[in-house]
Write a structure and sequence with these properties.
eight-stranded mixed sheet; 433 residues; alpha/beta
Length: 433
């Protein structure tokens, strides 16, 4: 199938490379010329495990990138993978989606054959049919349902495992208005739907939009509940991991997402929960439980720094922060709990030296005028430090041992429960254990 994908960010690039891997001919439409050149050179514009080899294999053949929206006319289906950033009030900022729909609509004005436009970005119920569809119809001069059709197909990609999540998902959700649109999407995803254990969910557009939010809100709530239980366990001197391991044996609960610690971050959970809360309020409903979920999550970095302050006078102290990305396996620092840790440490007068295997440059760009010091290794970050915290559980931190010898005081407060040799430290304390 000939597929066009508007947007070459985290989702768009991953989806494009994976669809090419499945045998489709894919063109990425992207306004950033540098990203277009990167993809066409066979390189990945983002750090994601398994992505670059696929781009390298298919670039110039079944995968290419362009800045020309007119190329979408030569395809059967277009997937809109555009950013929907969070506004200050938590609501969705739809300007990128509107702009992309306008340019796509203009391009489709000169197409005679039918075309399916699929929103893959995370948007609140009603956006596909009430925002995207009217723009497409106005710009193309073609009424929806009379040459152009719209659908919703949410993504469930996790950074660090996005390629595997796309190729072997637990579910594929198709929100369509017509049988023809559903058939096209089933054909597009046929190799994936053939996987044992992959469920096909076919529903209406509005339900498909809400499924993504409900999915992430549930998982974020579970993590915050686990962290609240972990905080309570800590107060009782109990190990939350042993407690929650037993709880996870209940098949109504499961063992997934049962690691208590510093909390959730990244590009999805914070934005999606905020958008759902804001959307609920627009509908006249107060989402009190989701408000509490966010409050618990926001408290974890402060608790981590407070635990460190129990052992180290932070005013003027040199503190090593291990990990900056919101999770291991990615360079993404959006809404990373590590950044909140940095802020709390700075507010308490600490001098900070930070290390991350891949995310350092992203933090430099985010805080160009900061006094933060960045180290090239965990050992360098720990050298001379009066204390240290673990904010991201990169596997390499499990192997730290003699590196602690260079610290002024071998004090470590762990926000992620790394598998470090605790005997190598004077003080080891876990956030919730």
């Amino acid at each position: 199938m000939n597929v066009s994908i508007v947007g070459s960010g985290y989702v768009g690039t991953t989806v494009a490379a994976c669809l090419a891997d499945l045998g489709h001919d894919v063109v990425n439409v992207e306004i950033d010329e540098e990203i277009v050149e990167t993809i066409n050179a066979g390189e990945a514009p983002i750090h994601e495990s398994g992505l670059e080899p696929r781009i390298a294999e298919h670039a110039g053949d079944s995968l290419r990138a362009t800045t020309d929206y007119a190329e979408a006319r030569e395809t059967d289906v277009t997937l809109l993978c555009l950013p929907t950033p969070q506004s200050e009030d938590g609501s969705l900022e739809l300007a990128p989606m509107r702009a992309g729909a306008e340019m796509l609509g203009e391009a489709l004005a000169e197409k005679d054959d039918d075309h399916l436009v699929v929103v893959k970005s995370t948007v609140l119920p009603g956006t596909t049919e009430e925002v995207v569809a009217p723009i497409l119809a106005d710009e193309s001069g073609t009424p929806i349902g009379e040459g152009i059709e719209v659908a919703m197909n949410p993504e469930f990609l996790r950074m660090g495992t996005a390629v595997g999540d796309f190729l072997e998902p637990d579910k594929v959700v198709l929100g369509t208005r017509t049988d023809a649109a559903a058939t096209t999407l089933r054909d597009l995803y046929a190799p994936i739907l053939a996987n044992e254990g992959t469920h096909l969910v076919e529903t209406d557009v509005r339900e498909a939009e809400l499924i993504k939010y409900a999915n992430n809100a549930f998982l974020a709530s579970k993590v915050s509940l686990v962290n609240e239980l972990g905080n309570i366990a800590k107060e009782y001197g109990a190990d939350a991991y042993e407690v929650l391991e037993a709880v996870g044996l209940d098949d109504r609960i499961s063992e997934r997402f049962m690691r208590s610690g510093l909390g959730w971050g990244g590009s999805c959970f914070p934005k999606d929960v905020a958008a759902l809360r804001a959307g609920a309020r627009e509908q006249g409903y107060e989402p009190e439980l989701l408000d509490a979920v966010v409050a618990v999550n926001d408290e974890q970095p402060r608790r981590l720094v407070s635990l460190l302050a129990d052992h180290v006078d932070l005013e003027g102290a040199r503190i090593a922060v291990l990990g900056l990305s919101f999770k291991p396996g990615t360079d993404d620092v959006r809404k990373s709990r590590a950044l909140d840790v940095l802020e709390h440490l700075e507010n308490r007068g600490a001098s900070i030296v930070a290390y991350d295997p891949v995310a350092t440059e992203n933090v430099r760009e985010k805080y160009p005028d900061t006094d933060l010091e960045f180290a090239d290794s965990a050992e360098a970050a720990l050298e001379g430090a009066d204390g240290a915290v673990v904010a991201t559980d990169w596997p390499e931190f499990d192997d730290l041992d003699g590196e602690f010898d260079g610290m002024a005081r071998r004090v470590l407060v762990d926000g992620r429960r790394i598998d470090v040799d605790r005997d190598a430290l004077e003080v080891y304390e876990g956030l919730t254990w």
